[in-house]
Write a structure and sequence with these properties.
Elements: H1 2-35, E1 40-48, E2 51-58, E3 60-62, E4 67-68, E5 75-76, H2 81-94, H3 121-125, H4 139-143, H5 152-162, H6 176-190, H7 194-206, E6 212-213, E7 227-229, E8 233-235, H8 241-248, E9 250-252, H9 254-265, H10 271-278, E10 289-293, E11 296-305, E12 308-315, E13 318-327, H11 331-342, H12 360-364, E14 368-372, E15 377-384, E16 387-392, E17 398-402, E18 407-410, E19 415-419, E20 425-430, E21 433-442, H13 457-461, E22 465-469, E23 474-480, E24 485-489, E25 495-499, E26 504-507, E27 512-517, E28 522-527, E29 530-536
Antiparallel strand pairs: 1-2, 1-13, 3-4, 5-9, 6-9, 7-8, 10-11, 11-12, 12-13, 14-15, 14-21, 15-16, 16-17, 17-18, 18-19, 19-20, 20-21, 22-23, 22-29, 23-24, 24-25, 25-26, 26-27, 27-28, 28-29
Length: 538
């Protein structure tokens, strides 16, 4: 009896200890997420051995209609769609429907895709095809169609025209194109649309009640809209699902992603399939990446599409899943905070008061176009309100907060930019990598300036209005204060326009030229080699 009493007492102590531990986790994470209010919108789930030990939702699924984010709000998950696609491809291979060694010419014989005889399904899974990424490598072309439905033929024509970056299997380079092709291959081998295949092979068997192929965002159905935090939460255009397909068209919740991850690593799809996913080539798995945080190592994937950001990671018996429709903080930092709380460590709270305000004169010194030869990429730095704004070719702009007079960051994408003393070079750090960009053009005092022209308030008023580009799926609003014009594209920060003639205006720091045509009620916008027509709305 005495021994039994001691055992019972010991069990009670263990139960109390566990409860206290859970209470400590809750308190730490509640405090942490409270500090993110106004800087993060979305939902988070933490599971241990398949059981939820923490869940939190913040912000709005629909800001305009004040629909809050909940645990059941569905978010577009972008590239986390790739693990879903990889599971289905490996399942098809294990069923004998295809071989990982099949070349893609077998599935696209008439598409004229370069090196199709050498590129295999396995290369696509590992991002080793060498094909040009028609999303990231062709940004200006991508912007002309990403909001409108695309047929299989249109996508294949774009893939064929884009060409290759390197010989297949010679190196790794992340490539959305490969997973688009895998989506088409799945449709071929199963004889059904991708949406039906993923529903049949993954969604229904796992009872993922809030996961689906996201054909359109509908807040009334429980979907989150896409936002970017500029001067306020601004709604972002949303990619048509036919453009992303197997590379990024799924929508889900953190709870469903955690359930999917646990099922995968528990071998629900088969131990062989799990090991095929985990088999690394240059540190990359088939549809999975490896993660290491604070001594925790695991597998998972991240996703980004429009304003949505997502991440799921599986560490031994712990799974963390995050979905956001608007964030001003890097999701990796949220994961680190969760791991610290679970490990019983103190959490490093985000400090949004660390940023300083610089004068307009100080900010103006940093504007210009900077080029990184190693990446073959340019970044344009402009002033937006009381802070800097950066934009890479073809991508949406993002604000930069000043840490000091020479250092800026955007916490949501994990970017830190340091400006050299001569203002002619910037160093960009992201995800442990460092790149140098050299000034290509600038608004400096000794640079020849384009002669500006003074126009009357009546002349300027004739150009005021909202112009729309069907090509870009974007509006450009033109306003006037009586002395100059200002432009603001959908989801972007406003920028001033200087008149260089009665019809021509420019914003030199971003390389923007706008030409108005009053007779045809339109304007033409030129930037970095791209040219787009906008028609005035009545």
């Amino acid at each position: 009896m005495k021994s039994l009493a001691k055992t019972f007492a010991a069990l009670c102590c263990v139960a109390v200890s566990t409860a206290c531990s859970q209470q400590a986790i809750d308190q730490k994470l509640d405090a942490y997420f409270s500090t993110l209010d106004g800087h993060f919108m979305g939902s988070v789930v933490v599971q241990r051995d398949g059981q939820t030990i923490y869940q939190r939702s913040l912000g709005w699924a629909d800001v305009e209609n004040q629909i809050p984010c909940t645990a059941e709000t569905q978010f577009r998950i972008g590239s986390i769609s790739k693990p879903f696609t990889a599971v289905m491809v490996l399942k098809a291979a294990n069923e004998g429907r295809l071989s990982l060694n099949d070349n893609i010419a077998k599935y696209f014989p008439d598409a004229q895709i370069p090196n199709a005889e050498q590129i295999t399904i396995n290369h696509l899974l590992y991002h080793r095809s060498g094909l040009v990424d028609i999303v990231n490598d062709k940004p200006y072309e991508y912007l002309t169609y990403y909001l409108t439905p695309q047929t299989r033929q249109q996508i294949l024509e774009r893939v064929a025209a884009a060409g290759t970056n390197f010989a297949s299997d010679s190196t790794f380079r992340y490539c959305n194109t490969g997973y688009n092709l895998l989506g088409f291959i799945l449709e071929d081998v199963y004889g059904k649309p991708y949406a039906e295949v993923v529903d049949e092979l993954i969604v229904k068997p796992l009872d993922l009640r809030h996961t689906r192929f996201s054909e359109a965002v509908n807040p009334q159905r429980g979907d989150a809209r896409s936002y970017a935090l500029l001067d306020h939460w601004q709604v972002q255009p949303e990619t048509d699902a036919s453009v992303a397909l197997g590379a990024g068209a799924m929508a889900s919740t953190p709870a469903d992603l955690a359930k999917f991850g646990k099922a995968l690593f528990d071998g629900i799809f088969g131990d062989n399939l799990r090991e095929q996913m985990k088999e690394l080539n240059e540190g990359i798995g088939r549809g999975l990446f490896t993660f290491s945080h604070n001594g925790h190592s695991g597998y998972g994937h991240s996703g980004a599409i429009d304003g949505f950001r997502s991440q799921f990671e599986v560490f031994d018996n712990l799974t963390i899943a995050i979905c956001s429709n608007g964030t001003d903080i890097d999701l990796n930092k949220i994961t680190l905070a969760i791991l610290d709380a679970v490990d019983g460590k103190d959490i490093e709270m985000p400090d949004f008061s660390k940023y300083i305000e610089l004068s307009a004169e100080q900010l103006a010194q940093y504007t210009g176009v900077f080029r990184c030869e190693a990446l073959g990429m340019e970044v344009t730095v402009t002033v937006a309100g009381n802070r800097l704004c950066a934009q890479t070719a073809g991508q949406q702009s993002f604000p930069l907060d000043a840490l000091s007079a020479d250092q800026f960051e955007n916490a949501s994408v994990g970017v830190v930019i340091t400006v050299a003393p001569d203002r002619n070079k910037i160093t960009l750090k992201q995800m442990g990598q460092t790149f140098e960009f050299v000034r290509k053009s600038a608004n400096t005092a000794n640079q020849a300036e384009t002669q500006s022209v003074a126009l009357t308030s009546e002349q300027l008023a004739a150009y005021v209005g909202t112009y729309s580009s069907a090509q870009l799926g974007m509006d450009l609003k033109i306003t006037s204060d009586g002395t100059k014009l200002q432009g603001q594209a959908t989801g972007q920060l406003a920028f001033p326009l200087t008149a260089t003639s009665e019809t021509d205006f420019e914003f030199k720091p971003a390389g923007i030229v706008i030409i108005f045509n009053l007779a045809d009620k339109k304007l033409t916008l030129k930037q970095n080699g791209g040219q787009f027509d906008f028609l005035k709305k009545e």
